Amino acid sequence: MPDLLVPLDPTSAEHANSLALLIGEATRADGQPPFSDQSLVDLRAGARAGTAIEIDGEIAGISIMTMGAAPAEAELVVSPTHRRRGLGARLLADVLARSGGRALIWAHGDHPDARSLAARAGLEPVRELLQLRLAPVRAPDGAAEARAFRPGADDAEWLALNAVAFADHAEQGDLTQADLDARKAEPWFDPADFLIASGDDGGMIGFCWLKVEGGIGEFYAVGVSPAAQGQGLGRGLVSAGLERLEARGIRESNLYVEAENTAAVTLYRSVGFVDHSIDIQYSSRPSSAS
């Protein structure tokens, strides 16, 4: 039976279950999840569109892409049991067609098959996101004093701090109340893993948000107010985060950081994090348009 491209409906129990199963299979095979948290949040909220490729009634691959403003941002994955059959090329061609040939596409893990597919489609690498890991977890001295996040009471102030701390990083800095609410609803969310640093006046000046899942403690986001930068607070928050992971008995930690953010990369490596993998964002060339 030929493959069939169909809209992915995250409100359908059948499609939601297939999505979760495919994410799990791909994560085990590739060592990292195929979709970002923001993609999944947006998909469930209707802000991104999903497409599934079916073979004999079974979902064998999925793409998720933004809608509206160009260029579109997309991620895609093919089930490990259905790879090397051209399904990735089918999903990619569909993304490029629906985006008018203007797309930014993430390849998590920079696998050889992804590089080959991108080259055949005429895509160019434009961005590198490093995944760093630390094992065993050991906290250096100098942890910043921090308290636990208070859901509801801290939301507005944290969103404002996050926006200025990540003013040059729209994916993080543009988080809304709905985005925060979606993350607070995730099973991994624990306010005690969301550390807040305060200034002399009691206002927030920095944070270290941890995500503990599958036995690994991820530094989900670390941010410092521009007014408090240059004082070692970033390093102090990382140390506080590692202390929290140690207290929870977590022995391995990871994080994602832009390769061009040399200050952050230097900081994380100075406390023991080492390179683990690379995510590559590809851009379609003008000649990719059809």
TrEMBL record:
The keyword Repeat applies. PROSITE patterns: GNAT. Residues 6-140, 144-290 form the N-acetyltransferase domain. Acetyl-CoA 1 binds at residues 76-78. Acetyl-CoA 2 binds at residues 222-224, 229-235. 1D-myo-inositol 2-(L-cysteinylamino)-2-deoxy-alpha-D-glucopyranoside binds at residues 37, 171, 211, 218, 256. It catalyses: 1D-myo-inositol 2-(L-cysteinylamino)-2-deoxy-alpha-D-glucopyranoside + acetyl-CoA = mycothiol + CoA + H(+). Monomer. HAMAP family: MshD (MF_01698). This is Mycothiol acetyltransferase. It comes from Marisediminicola antarctica.
